[in-house]
Structures are given as structure tokens and as C-alpha cells.
Amino acid sequence: MEDRVMMAHGSGGKLSHELVSRCFVGKLNNAWLARMDDSAVLETPGRLAFTTDSYVVTPLFFPGGDIGKLAVCGTVNDLSMSGAIPLYLSLAFIIEEGLVVSELEKIVDSIQRAAQEAGVSVVTGDTKVVQRGKADGLFINTAGIGHIPEGVNISGSNANAGDAVIISGTIGEHGMTIMAQREGLRFSGGLASDCVPLNSLVSEMLKACSDIHCMRDPTRGGVATTLNEIATQSHVGITIEDAAVPVRPPVRSMCELLGLDPLYIANEGKLLAFVPADRANALLNTMRRHKYGKDAAIVGWVTDERPGRVILRTRLGTSRILAMLSGDILPRIC
Amino acid sequence: MEDRVMMAHGSGGKLSHELVSRCFVGKLNNAWLARMDDSAVLETPGRLAFTTDSYVVTPLFFPGGDIGKLAVCGTVNDLSMSGAIPLYLSLAFIIEEGLVVSELEKIVDSIQRAAQEAGVSVVTGDTKVVQRGKADGLFINTAGIGHIPEGVNISGSNANAGDAVIISGTIGEHGMTIMAQREGLRFSGGLASDCVPLNSLVSEMLKACSDIHCMRDPTRGGVATTLNEIATQSHVGITIEDAAVPVRPPVRSMCELLGLDPLYIANEGKLLAFVPADRANALLNTMRRHKYGKDAAIVGWVTDERPGRVILRTRLGTSRILAMLSGDILPRIC
Q1: Structural domains in chain A plus CATH codes
Q2: CA-closest candidate to residue B263, choices B213, B308, B304, B313
């Protein structure tokens, strides 16, 4: 039997990592891809960041956003996570024949609003249409270019023992909103995607603390997967206090009902930051003054024990390994 | 009845232009998009070009190339048409669940070879998977960044009355190859896609002639559509001598049999260049010494009559308007 791509290859979890390592990074071997960061740092005058993401979320519209807002925020956030100031986006549509034009227009309006909030310009684009049944309404790709200021050096490889781990707010809202929409769940009262552009928050953070080691937005695969990526890239251990992780009540109760762990649920407007412990409280105060960082919290720390592992200290006082997402809880979340 | 997106909206022809103008350029209003060039010229130190394209060609493999080679060459060529030296690509996959991994690997190998030939690096990427039946095997998006050298100023808006129009080689091979593959036509002897990266040809051209006004690669919609785009952007008339346009015999005979005009058939390794008439022969000689310009020919000239119109002088000595592609001869050609 031949190997086939499975849904879990696109989950952002373990199988995704294997596919990317084996099939793409291995073959397209270069120093940029090997870093496994969200953005490529380009050695041109002025240091640019350049990143890309395709968006295949279903449904196209959901409380708190739509595929267009997601396509802008996702790429703006990837750029921001390298400390870059997002400047330019490309925008490419793959449209299924039969998509209602007014829906497309609503999505483009939403792109425009999100781009305006983030202060980025969509500077180039492309449109393809495929036959009915050969796509699913609309797929969007955005690539982005940002400028990395002098002195900023942020990477998933830079976490150090002693760093504090900060989350910028409550987790799991994007994923649970999509799930509730898709499954027609009625008990999701007040739940909305957290999808927002994080560049203004990051800009405040960099002003307050020039010494941020890593930042990453925990999207597909959730906080648990992102922490595992950084533990691996930086060859460090990470310990997380479950009780310190902020989760809103509707997410908590939906997760309990469905047997899911919020640490694996996707976010689209949150970031994890790793900073020296003695800078953490000052940074936290700065973040909490920003509208997208109000619920920021210190959730853990970096150790030199068990490099590559993430340990969760539970509310019961026990500890267990928090693994990377394996399989796919919820396909097409972004 | 609501407006719906039709296949022709993705053809690169008239309906594509209407959709892009109305729905995207109108709403995402900025100076870069308004130029309607293939690449955005970014005002950063060193002038960068940045472009994107998604590739949805079917079948994924065809004589002369595959979707991977196409995804590199297409974006390299778009950058080259602005006079930029292509440097960096992003690469994003949307994969239909069930795609055979060995096919994906063949495609990545092909991407690598094409990137190597073009001298570009794939520096960032993304992978999404959608359920069986929600895509068609594989879609690829590439975005690209290139460096525009000092003094180069090439745009679809720069054609002047008196310019000669040069085509870099024989036309229609990519489109007719895909059609032959898809329809299982047996009489396509020796036909292969012309898909190649044109940046080394462009580099030789710029060395030989610093005064190239426009360049564009006639992909979807063919030479006729590209000429119409430039006539509109530059507010000039363009006259083309049908007999001067090089067409290989298998393309000629397939087109005759199927009632198609090679001027509307897609190319993936050809370019149109507009240069002052007194520089045309020297440039032509340079092009003919390059492996991808062997069959280059002067095919027409720019006038100040009937701005926005392209006139075809036929083999019979008559003249007719050569319109932009309307409808869609062959969907999913790239």
C-alpha cells in the first residue's frame, strides 16, 4: 500500500511536522527553512520578514470573523512573531465555481478592514476558479513582508532556561467557535473567535522589553503544540501550570462536555512570549494595558531539564508530559 | 438571481479583469494594485518586487513539467517581468486528503530543480489538507520577492508609440499540451509545455538593452489578452502581424482542428517585450543566442492610433480587432 496524505498531515500536529520535515525541509534544504520559524528573515538591506499561509477554514463566516479576516490576521501575526513590523501582503484566491459574489465581496471588505487595523497594504494578488466540486467555496493564501527593526532577534530557537512563559490572553476561543458553528451546537453562548491582528500588541511589548527571546501564536495544534515546537527548537524543557492558563467559561464547559483539552484548541489572536524571568512582570503589565492583552498571564517557565519536553503541572499537583497534538481534533480550523 | 462566480472569472480574460477591477482593486484601493502590474514594487531600501500566484492546473503532471515546476516558473517569471532578479519564494500547499505521497514528493523534487535553475530559494511555506472531494489533488501557491536593479523601470504602463513588440519564441505550447493531456488526444506528437524560468533570458536582455519599456509573460488568456492589457494600461494602439508570430506545427495543426486561435492559448515560458524600434534588432539578436529565446521574433509595433485597441493584420492583408479573451477556452491551465 502506498503512503497517502491524511487529514492529520494538515493539523499542525505531529504528522504535519513529520511531513514538513521529511518532504519539504529535507528536499528544499536551506538555512531559512531549517530554522523552522514562522517567517523567513531575508538578508537584504533593512532585514525583511516574509511568510505565507493558506486559509481553508469552514464555514467561511463565523462569530468574530470570516476567512478574510483570518487570512490577514494569520499572516500579520506570523510576521509579528518574528518581531517584524508587517508592511505588505499578497492575496490569492482559489474560488469554487458557484460562490456567491456578494459573499466574496463581504470577505474582501473584511480583508480591507483587517488590513487597515493592522496597517498593512495588500500589494499584489491572484485569482483562480476551479469547477464546482473541486474546492470548497473559497481558499485564500496570503504571503506577507515585514521589516525587522535593528536589534530585534526573536526566534523559536532562543528560549533559555530561566525564561518565563507568558500567554497574551484566554485560549481556545477560535477553535471552539468553529466547532460550535460546524456542529450546530447551541450551548456556545457568547462564544466568538479571538481572531485579531497582534502587531500593535507586539509593538508595545518590544518597546517595554527589548529582550524577548521567542514569540509564537498558538494556532493549529494549540498552546500545547506550540510549546513543544519551541522546546524542540531551543533544546529546553518547559513547565506549564495548568491552573495559570486563562480559559473563558464557555470554552471550559464546551471542552469538558466534548472531552477536549483547551491546550490543544486553536487560537487566532493570542501569542506566547518567552522572556527573562526578571522582565516578565513589567512586560505583563504592558500587555495588560493593551486591548488584546488584557488577560495576559505568566503560565510557566523554561528549564534545562528534559530538553524537548513540555511538562504540565495539573491542578491536582501532579505532573505529566504535555505532548504535541497527534491526529486532528478539528480539521480546517484556519 | 444572485451573481455567481463562473469559470470564466478565473480565465485571465475579460470576466477576470472585471472581477479583479470591481471586487479587489476597487475595495483594496491602493497605488500598487491600481498599477495592475504583475508585481508590486515596494519602497524599501533596494527596491523589491513581490508577487503571488496560485496553481490549480489539472492534470498535475504533463509533458514538459508538472504543477511544481509551474509554481516556481510562474512566479519567477512574474518577478522577471518587472525587471527584478528573483530571489525568494514562499510555497503553500493545499492538499486533498488521499493524494499519494510519492506524487507529492515528485512535485517537490520538481520544485527544487526549477528553483535551482532559476537561482531562487524557497524560504517559507505552509501546508493545509482538506477532505476528499473538497479540492482536486493539489493546489500550490507561491509568492516571490525579487530585487529590482538601479535604473530598471519596466511596467505595462510604459509602452510608447514607435515601440517594437517582440515575442521570445513559439506560442501556445503549454495550453495545447494541457488540452491534449486532458482530452486524451493522440495526435499531439512531440508537444510539450514550454514551462521554463525566464529570469536568465531577462538578465541578458537587460544587459543588452537598458531601455525595455514593458515585459509581460502571456499566460492565461494568451498573447492576445496580454497585448490588450498593455494597450489599456499604456493608452496606446498595438498592431500585430499574424504571419510574424512563431507557432510550432503541432500547435498550429491542433488549433486548426479544434477551431482555436494560438494567440489565445496559454504560454508558460514566453515573454512579450516592448522596446524602442531602433533597439529591437540588437535585442532580438541577444535573445536568439539564449536557449529560451532561440525563436524570438518582432511581431508588431505600438501606435498612437486607437488607444487601448490591438489590431491584427492577417495573412490575407486584412485587419481586424484582436480582443481580450472572453469566456474560458480551457480552465485550470496553470
Answers
A1: 7-148 (3.30.1330.10), 163-321 (3.90.650.10)
A2: B313
* Beta-carbon-side half-sphere exposure of residue A209 (alpha carbons within 13 Å): 24
Residues 6+ apart with CB under 8 A from A27: B105, B108, B109, B111, B112
Do B147 and B48 contact (CB within 8 A), yes or no? yes
Nearest residue to A93 via CA among A78, A76, A106, A108: A108
Helix axes A277-288, A199-208, angle to 10 degrees: 130
* CA distance from start to end of chain A: 31
Q: How many CB atoms lie within 10 A of CB A240?
A: 23
Three-class DSSP category at B94: strand
Q: Read off the pLDDT of residues A61-92 as tens digits, 9 standing for 90 and up.
A: 999 999 999 999 999 999 999 899 998 898 89
Find the closest chain A residue to B89 by CA distance: A50
How far is it, in rounded angstroms, from Cα A240 to Cα A237?
10
A3/A9 Cα distance (integer angstroms)? 12
A141/B40 touch (CB, cutoff 8 Å), yes or no:
no
| Cα distance between residue B222 and residue A299, in whole Å | 57
Rg of chain A on CA atoms, in Å:
19
Contacts of residue A93 in chain B, CB cutoff 8 Å? Answer: 54
Residue B94 in contact with partner chain A when CB distance is under 8 A: yes
Residues of A in contact with B75 (CB under 8 A): none
Q: Does the beta-carbon distance from B123 to A32 stay under 8 Å?
A: yes
The shortest C-alpha distance from A162 to chain B (Å) reads 30
What gap in Å lies between CA B94 and CA A19, rounded to an integer? 13
Helices marked H in chain A? 14-19, 31-35, 67-80, 101-118, 173-183, 199-208, 222-234, 249-258, 277-288
Q: How far is CA A97 from CA A68, A134, B22, B103, B290, in A?
A: 18, 9, 18, 26, 41
**Distance between CA A274 and CA B185 in Å, rounded?**
60
Confidence of residue B15 (pLDDT cuts 50, 70, 90): confident
Answer for the pair A2, B100: CB distance below 8 angstroms, yes or no. Answer: yes
What pLDDT, in 10s, does the model give residues B223-277?
A: 999 999 899 989 999 999 999 999 999 999 999 988 999 999 999 999 999 999 9
Interface contact B100, partner A, CB < 8 A: yes
CA pair distance B143, A88, nearest whole angstrom: 12
What are the φ/ψ torsions at residue A216 (nearest 5 degrees)? -155, 145
Query: Which residues are bridge partners to A5 per DSSP?
Result: none
Nearest to A124 by CA among B105, B282, B52, B34: B52
